[in-house]
Amino acid sequence: MPAAGSQEVIIQHWRFNRCQALSTPEECALLWRVFQQRVIANISLEHVAYVQLLENHGARSGASLPHPHAQLLALPFVPGDQRHRLELARKQYLRQQKLTLGDVSMTANPFDVAIAEARDAGRVLVENDGCAAFVPYGLDKSYEIWIVSKSAEADTIAKEPCIDLFAECVRLSLKMLYR
Hints:
- By secondary structure, the protein is of the alpha+beta class.
- It has helices at 25-43, 80-97, 112-120, 163-178; strands at 6-11, 50-56, 69-75, 124-127, 131-134, 146-149.
- The chain has a 3-stranded antiparallel beta sheet with strand order 1-3-2, covered by helices on one side. Strands 4-5-6 form a 3-stranded antiparallel beta sheet.
C-alpha cells in the first residue's frame, strides 16, 4: 500500500529525557494544549479522516528516538482496527442506554458507567472534575490505564474542555507507573 497521510513528531520537553511523569503540572498542561492544538489543526484538513496521537519513550515502547516524544498521525481513512473498536463501543453504549445499572443514571457520556464501575471496584487511580484515570476491567497489559473525559462533548482530545485537568490526570497516572 502506498504511503498516505502525514506524521508529526512532538518533542515533549526542552530538557533531554524529561518525561511527563517528572514534569511540573504547568509543563504538562502546556504540552497537552499543544497536543490539542495540533490535533485540531490536522482534523480541520480536508483530506484527514482520522488523527491518532501516540506517545513514545524509550526503546521498550518502540521509540526510535531516545527522548520522550509523541507522534501525531493524520490519515485520509480510519484504520480497520480503530473502526472496529469504535463500532464495538457504539454498540455497547446503545445497549447501556437500554439498561439501568444500579443507581447509575444513563447520560450522554458513554464512559460514565465505566468510571462508576471502576470507582466501585477501587480501580480509580486519579479523578478530578474533568476526567478519571482507572485500571480497566479485563486489562490487556499489567500497566494499562484508561484516562477518560467526564465531558459528554469530548469525543476527541480536540473537544476536551478541561485539557489542563486532563493533563494533570495523565501526569499523575504516569508518575504512579514511573515510581
